[in-house]
Design brief:
- The chain is α+β, with helices and mostly antiparallel strands and about 325 residues long.
- It is built from 7 helices and 18 strands.
- It has a 6-stranded antiparallel beta sheet with strand order 6-9-5-4-13-14. Strands 10-11-12-17-18 form a 5-stranded mixed beta sheet. A 3-stranded antiparallel beta sheet has the order 3-15-16, with no helix packed on it.
- Strand 4 and strand 5 form a beta hairpin.
Length: about 325
């Protein structure tokens, strides 16, 4: 099985889906809802889903670690969106044909400019050096809204737009703040300062106080807490089988089901997922499983060794080094 933790493709649902003309539960501006049928996706069956590794689908924003300026860097997801005129043309075609198939993009002119350092997500088809959208109007590498080209932009400290991304990396020290299962006890999480070099070519989820409404209850407005979680690192024990009714029941009734969804890593490298919204279930729904798990802090030597700003997140965690909290959401910094 290939290394887990790299989510560069648009992940299909474990069930076949259909589109209903009703307000999306996930996106306020979306006037349609993608829902799962009870039919298992043939992609999942062909990939032997029953033998796949089930991991927690995390609710944050997707990031990527790759080289920039000769060193490992954190990159934020940035979708290259079409101009208003091109978007209108696409939607008019979509409405009149009841499908996106057959629509042709002018790749050079239809999309807005992006920062010079922007790179498209992996495995994107190109035309004259430009990434080409698929028939749905987006490049099928990461789950994006319609009419967007998925890609990455490097996170630089002076860019305030990505200040929460910046808070979890220290480029001079080559470190990232990572939340992961403890090597000693998989039931316990740990927050650790991990070399960025160890995360190269992985995708991760940035979660925390100022990301996606903070479903995990981390930190506070006065003391924000953020961390990176490698995709595929939080495994689900005893997951339910790939059955619509059993999955619904597990998500609603099991203590282990207090998650946004599941991502299955199949032995052939295929990824499939299910999100609560696919099944008509709300999120978040009470206390989350991740937020209620015990956590220990292992951030040692950062302040003295690297002379990092005493106000930053690394310093705050280093002062908690060795501390154990009964719940992730209880992590608070000393005054």
């Amino acid at each position: 099985m290939r290394r887990l933790g790299s989510v560069q493709q648009k992940i299909p649902c474990i069930f076949l889906t259909e589109v209903k003309e009703e307000q999306s539960r996930k996106r306020e501006c979306q006037q349609f809802q993608v829902v799962a049928t009870e039919n298992v996706n043939p992609v999942a069956l062909e990939s032997n889903i029953d033998c796949a590794l089930a991991t927690e689908k995390l609710d944050g924003t997707c990031c990527y670690v790759t080289v920039y300026k000769g060193q490992p860097y954190l990159w934020a997801r940035l979708d290259r969106k079409p101009s208003k005129q091109a978007d209108k043309r696409f939607k008019k075609y979509q409405h009149s044909h009841k499908s996106c198939k057959g629509f042709t993009w002018n790749v050079e002119e239809d999309f807005k400019t992006v920062p010079e350092a922007w790179i498209p997500a992996h495995r994107v088809k190109h035309h004259n050096g430009n990434p080409v959208p698929d028939e749905h109007g987006h490049i099928p590498e990461i789950l994006t809204g319609p009419c967007a080209c998925a890609g990455w932009v490097p996170v630089e400290r002076e860019n305030k737009q990505y200040c929460w991304h910046s808070s979890v990396v220290e480029y001079d020290a080559g470190l990232a703040l990572v939340l992961r299962p403890s090597a000693e006890d998989e039931d316990t999480l740990e927050i650790a300062a991990v070399p960025l070099a160890e995360l190269l070519e992985q995708t991760l989820e940035l979660i925390g106080t100022n990301v996606n409404g903070n479903p995990y209850g981390l930190g506070s407005k006065k003391q924000p807490v953020h961390a990176l979680v490698s995709h595929g690192s939080v495994r689900i024990r005893n997951p339910p089988p790939a059955d619509f009714q059993q999955l619904c029941a597990w998500l609603q009734e099991s203590p282990e089901g207090r998650v946004e969804g599941i991502v299955w890593h199949c032995n052939n490298g295929t990824l499939v997922k299910v999100h609560r919204h696919h099944l008509g279930l709300g999120w978040p729904d009470g206390e989350t499983l991740l937020g209620s798990r015990p956590v220990v802090v292992h951030v040692d030597g950062t302040v003295d060794e690297y002379d990092i700003d005493s106000r930053d997140l690394f310093t705050s965690f280093s002062r908690l080094n060795g501390r154990r909290f009964s719940r992730l959401r209880d992590v608070l910094f000393d005054p």
